[in-house]
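step: validate -> pass
step: tokenize input -> pass
step: predict -> running
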Amino acid sequence: MFDAAAPSFSLAAKVVVQFGGTGLLGRALVTALGAAGATLVVASRNRASLDALAATERAAGRSVQVEEVDIGSEDSLRALRERLVAQHGRIDGIVFNAVSRPMKSYDDDLAAWRSSMETNATGFFATVRVFGDAMAAKKSGSIVNISSQMGTIGMNPWLYEGTGAKIPPDYFFHKGGMTNLTRYLASHYGSSNVRVNVVSPGGIYNPEKPQADAFLARYAPMTMLGRMAEAREIGGAVVFLLSDASTYITGANLPVDGGYTAK
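step: predict -> pass
step: emit ->
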């Protein structure tokens, strides 16, 4: 809901639901949205991970509501939507950051591809439709989908030489589809004053499981900033697109990739 008196970049008084919040990037987004003042709900299938996230946030002096949901089930999604609307009165924004990566190589059995589709394609669309329709009914809202630079570019095998890494195809397929479906959704919901945008992060350095030295040495000069991203650097773009600072932006793909895709 737009408040002309509120700071443009603030998420204060906004109810935001983040799908996928327990991984490296998800946790960083939780911190960013909380710092911006959002009333934040993090939804995921894994109750144990959700409880651990809530405990970490409480220990840091922040508060986050956690909710278990199966994004592959419309009934589960609708039940979550109704609980949150009953509790908070409305939903102002969602962040779709959920991802499943069951494929490990190009030669995997098709069952892994189908499993990937369940979350990254079907679950994505079901989530946005269930919650987008609720925002459309209120004539206000913002949807931010977390894609990847891999949804814009092809696979570069040179980056992975000597690392033993096998790069499966499903991630490229889903992130490219997410980016273009975001444009469709922006058109579909535009007349209801619901904005839909996508953020496409570049490679994120993982201090918990560091990437191979050979990969890091090759990746850095591919960017204009000469390094991988830190997870915390993605949140600002997401906060911006959820906030009233971006009320005339929809259907956009915002790369946060250190200039990788601009070179």
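step: describe -> The longest strand covers residues 194-201.
step: cleanup -> pass
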